[in-house]
Amino acid sequence: MVRDRLRSVYKEGQIGLQEGSPEEDCEKMTEIPEDATARPAPQEIRGFLHYPGWLDVAEQQALLADLREVVARAPLFSPMTPYGKPMSVRMTSAGRFGWVSDRRGYRYSETHPDGCPWPEIPSSILAIWNAVSGTTRAPECCLINFYGEGAKMGMHQDRDEDDFDQPVVSISLGDDGLFRIGNATRGGKTESLWLRSGDVMVMGGAARLLYHGIDRIKPGTCPLMPKGGRINLTLRVVT
Ligand SMILES: O=C(O)CCC(=O)C(=O)O
Ligand SMILES: [Fe+2]
What we know:
239 residues, Jelly Rolls, 2 domains, seven-stranded antiparallel sheet, four-stranded antiparallel sheet, 13 strands, binds 2-oxoglutaric acid, binds fe (ii) ion, AlkB-like, ferrous iron binding, AlkB-like_sf, oxidoreductase, broad specificity oxidative DNA demethylase activity
C-alpha cells in the first residue's frame, strides 16, 4: 500500500525524482516523511472541500479505539428534538462543549445529559483539524453522531456556533452515508455524494452555512465496525 501511495505521489510529480527504475525510486521515496505527500487533494463541491480517503485503514482503526474510550465516559444518547420527537441519530461529544437538544431547544452545553463534563478531544482527531481546517483556533466541540440502520439527518444549517468564519470539519467512519448539499436558504436544487469511511469534509468559507443532511446510510458497506453503522465526527469552534 505504501508503495502504491508512493507511486501515485511519484506520478503526480510532487517529488522531483528524475532517474532510476521505479523499484529504486520506491526505495528512495520511503525516506520521505509520510504525511504531507500521502494525503489526497480535495474535491470541491458547492464550496465544501471533500477529501476522499483522507484516513487509511490503520488510522481509522486508531480513531475508533480513541472514540470507544470517549463513548465509555460519555455514552451515546438519543436527543429529543424541541418538538419532542427522538432523533434517529445517537450522539455524544468530546471537548469543552457538547451539542445537546431537548424540549428547551438545540444548544451547546458544558455537560453531558448525565451531568458530567465531556471527555477531551483525542489528539488523533485534533491532528485532522490541524491539517485541514486552515484556522489557528482550536475546536471546542467534537460532536459524535452514530447512525444505525435507518438513521438519517434532515437538511439543516450548523448555526449554533458564534463565529461562522470558523469552519466545521467532518470525518466519516464505517458504512457509507448519502450526504446531500443544498443552498444557503431552505429548498432549491441539491447535490449528493456518498461519504465513505476515512473521508474528511471541510465546510467553511462561503459554504459554511449551506443546508446539508444525511438521507440514508448503506448498511454492510464497511467492515470497520463489527456491528456496522456509521460514525460522523464534526469538529467545531463554538465561542
Ligand atoms: O453525518 C454527517 O455527515 C453530517 C452531520 C451533520 O451535519 C451535523 O452533525 O451537523
Ligand atoms: Fe450539520
